[in-house]
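Bumping my old thread because nobody answered last time. Still need a sequence for this structure:
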């Protein structure tokens, strides 16, 4: 099954595994809550068999609170010349959901060298030990949730995204931006002249899991204009977006930032997200802003999780 991109360009569609032609992958978020390791393995075996005509497969599965995620993460299912294996684990432990597990695999033609993988982990590791202080928004900048975008706002967002990314999992057309603005929570910072200088979004998808209503929230599409970087503008936008979900029940909030850019990893850490895994050559994404060279057109991502519950 092929899916048309929606406003939730990063989350994708829920409930099935779809072929995403632009990113040459099969991708899915399955909404059943699996109650045993055997059930997860059986489901993955089925998915692996059905989707072998792409160079990457990425499937997210939910398990109940009775399933040990450490054991479930050991499942390996043959796929092409390798194995569909666990890439990230989000421990949820709310309602009927125990954990969300990412399983993925790449064709041999779509893998990253061990040198680059090590450099990305080293970059993340170096940031985990840094001490940071919270930044205030500089004077003359204003933060808002963008509710009624003008045509000029849409044009400015396209400009920022095109400057920030040399490629992305979707194209930045007026239609795509308009759809994002209609469906997502979007925070922007404007400069003294009212021009948008930075942006961050939350994509929201709703699903029913074993009779419970849940929200899946991906913090995504964060970018700042190259002239305004390093001043805390992207931080302010992302913090504003996150505020909307703090204290929420039955809400899974996560981010999948580029693994080769210190600034975005730092931002996620500063905002209290925890790294829980890595997705190899997950999708089309690249930028001239990078700290580790990228191998080819598909970018590596880390997975971060934000607990919305008060600790
Ligand atoms: C990532 C991006 C949005 C950051 O924007 P920004 O406005 O400069 O971000 P901020 O100033 O709010 O915060 C960046 C943080 O990273 C830190 N940082 C910057 N470069 C860094 C580096 N190479 N390594 C580690 N940390 C770095 C900054 O010091 C700052 O942290 P601090 O506030 O604790 O000092 C911007 O670089 C961008 O648009 N990049 C291209 C698009 C992109 O890749 N977006 C992310 C997609 S997943």
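Sorry it took so long. Here it is:
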């Amino acid at each position: 099954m092929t899916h048309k991109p929606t406003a939730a360009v990063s989350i994708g569609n829920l409930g099935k595994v779809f072929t995403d032609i632009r990113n040459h992958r099969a991708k899915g978020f399955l909404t059943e809550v699996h109650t045993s390791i055997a059930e997860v393995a059986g489901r993955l075996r089925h998915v692996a068999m059905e989707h072998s005509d792409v160079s990457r497969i990425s499937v997210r599965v939910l398990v109940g609170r009775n399933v040990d995620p450490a054991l479930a993460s050991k499942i390996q299912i043959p796929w092409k010349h390798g194995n569909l294996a666990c890439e990230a684990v989000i421990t949820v432990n709310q309602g009927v959901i125990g954990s969300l597990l990412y399983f993925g695999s790449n064709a041999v033609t779509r893998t990253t060298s061990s040198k680059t993988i090590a450099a990305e982990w080293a970059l993340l590791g170096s940031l985990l030990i840094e001490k940071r202080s919270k930044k205030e928004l500089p004077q003359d900048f204003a933060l808002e949730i963008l509710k009624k975008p003008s045509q000029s706002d849409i044009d400015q967002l396209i400009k920022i995204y095109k400057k920030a990314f040399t490629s992305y999992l979707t194209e930045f057309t007026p239609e795509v931006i308009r759809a994002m603005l209609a469906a997502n929570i979007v925070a922007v910072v404007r400069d003294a002249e009212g021009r948008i200088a930075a942006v961050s979004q939350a994509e929201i998808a709703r699903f029913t899991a074993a009779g419970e209503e849940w929200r899946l929230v991906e913090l995504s599409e964060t970018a700042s204009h190259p002239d305004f970087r390093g001043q805390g503008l992207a931080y302010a936008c992302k913090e504003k977006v996150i505020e909307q979900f703090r204290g929420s029940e039955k809400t899974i909030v996560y981010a999948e930032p580029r693994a080769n850019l210190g600034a975005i990893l730092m931002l996620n850490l500063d905002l209290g997200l925890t790294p829980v895994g890595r997705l190899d050559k997950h999708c089309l994404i690249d930028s001239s802003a990078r700290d580790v060279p990228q191998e080819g057109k598909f970018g590596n991502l880390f997975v971060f999780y934000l607990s919305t519950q008060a600790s």
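Confidence is low (pLDDT under 50) at residues 1-5. Let me know if any region looks off to you.
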